[in-house]
């Protein structure tokens, strides 16, 4: 089934132009990677947050309003960040708010520590240090992410030492906690940077591939349009001018006027592919033979048209290209061989295809010696048949020329 031209035009319009601004399509992998990172962060932060909440509730003195306020200040932004990560909306804003609020709460923690109580156990706020680091990974640029991963463990270390009144026992434990948290935070930021870099590389490669394809498609379309226009000028306009120049009788003048009218119509419809190449409705081999006989009549030539094989159907576009290429071959035979020994064979193979052979007994010519600016054979025969996945072959010698045109169903 042929593609809908409107669908093709719509799909073509969605291909980004080279050098255009970054589009949703070009950042496909990067956006998917951000979604994956947000989901993983939500799962891990949810587990650590649950542990911290349990630890905070079980060790809290409910008469201490300041500690309850600290718990709410930390966990409300954390819950908002988890929800944003799960739904994929406002992730950067929610994560940035939590990272800043948590760092401020951690720095203010000594204010809420009872100096008379020796906190032998780790405080609940410690469980969220790496959550603050991954929040920075989702919210901040790379340099600030590493700054957060380095500074936040030292803020925690200072808080622990203040809580322990800088006693010797706390130095060893705090040094271990800080070093562990520091290494883990840097590893988390590095993994996030690596995954984002890979995703950006994939998006960049895809953008280059699409831009290369768009450029190649544009060049191919321009070349096809040039070849089509050249073939049109040679087939219709030039043929009409030659016919008008040679028209001596009334019949010849009428034919020249008809050819000129057809040439003008095709020129007016150069932007419509269907108008140029005809309908895609299937055409029988018998109709092709009728068109070939009509072409002979317009050229004022006498020839034998022989029909062989079974009657089949081929797409209208292929039939149109076959007839136009055969008309060009007939015109060459009439012009250069004066129609001597002109013989046409149309051999149908049912629905599998058709072969048209045009032969004459003229003096022949050297195909390799034809100039590049001569489009009668290159554009009107070879390029035209190639455009419909057909074949064209020319065998010329001093004993005559044979042009074989074929199309097969694939």
UniProtKB/TrEMBL annotation:
Residues annotated as signal peptide: none
Alphabetized InterPro entries for the sequence: HATPase_C_sf, Sensor_HK_TwoCompSys
Example GO BP: phosphorelay signal transduction system
Gene3D superfamilies: Histidine kinase-like ATPase, C-terminal domain
Stretches that traverse the bilayer: 36-62, 68-87, 94-113, 125-158, 170-195
Highest taxon of source: Bacteria
Keywords: Kinase, Membrane, Transferase, Transmembrane, Transmembrane helix, Two-component regulatory system
Gene Ontology molecular function terms on file: kinase activity
PANTHER family for the chain: NITRATE/NITRITE SENSOR PROTEIN NARX-RELATED (PTHR24421), OXYGEN SENSOR HISTIDINE KINASE NREB (PTHR24421:SF61)
Name of the protein: Signal transduction histidine kinase
Species name: Microbacterium hydrocarbonoxydans
